Amino acid sequence: MKRPTIHDVAAAAGVSRGTVSRVLNGDRYVSTSARLAIERAIAETGYVVNRNARSLVTQRAGSVVIVLSEPHEKIFEDPNYSTTIRTSIRRLAERDMSLVMMIAGDAGDRDRVLRYVKGGHADGVLLLSTHAGDPLVDALDGMRIPAVSCGAVIGRENVIPYAACDERGGAQQMTRYLVEQGRKKIAMITGPMDTPGGIQRLEGFADVLGRKASKKLIEHGDWTRLSGESAMARLLERSPDLDAVFAASDVMASGALSTLRAAGRRVPEDVALGGFDDSAVAMSTHPALTTIRQPLAEIAEETVRILLDLIDGAEHVPSVTIPTMLIVRDSA
Q: Which CATH architecture has domain 63-165+297-323?
């Protein structure tokens, strides 16, 4: 059976081929009656847009590549990524654009990403969990392709626009709450110190505690549950009398909770525990986590909006920072 063409759609709708083409390309200057007739004709004929042909005309790929700068296994452990990806897919679909996901966890992965982008397969790049000093950022900047980051890229904030939560402010909220609960010896498990979440959440913690935020009460994690378990064990070994812990992610907090339970510490009676994200993990622990809600879907929406504005030709789009919220549950 012959595949329907744009000529078949035009004939069925009683309009010119050029009018059909304008509707398919999103032109707003087409009458409502003509647009409705074309939409009916597309449904009746079963016409499907030939993306290769469209790309030749529009010089656009019709897709965006999202680049996760983490090892493959982290995709499945951290629920934040699924929220960001799901929201991005939905927003891009509204523009009839596709999302292609690529991992850039090592040099070989980064080379594949750059070859893909250089090949003209994407109209823009959305960076996710990018670490400071990542050579991919400078390479993309040199290619002059529209790029945005979900969360700031440390040291490149003025080069790559971003949407993010108020990392520092959120950490201040949690630390202040633990102090208000009467906790005297508060420890922290940070994220990686080459990410904004790692650096700025530690800064917020120190803003509130001042000199009480001693190195003895700070351990570093990598956003994984295992790192939360091991960091908590080191903190208990050094400071067995600590009475509160702020983990910079819910996933790490769940690992810390496991270690506290194994050590015979009751949460929150002996040790109060706070997380960050308000992901699905926060409601799956026992007790449920007191945490900081970062509006992940809204952040993803803003990230895609910035990228689409850049793709559409905007020379400069300002970055966006979204407030967080303290969510009190049973762990603190």
A: 3-Layer(aba) Sandwich (3.40)
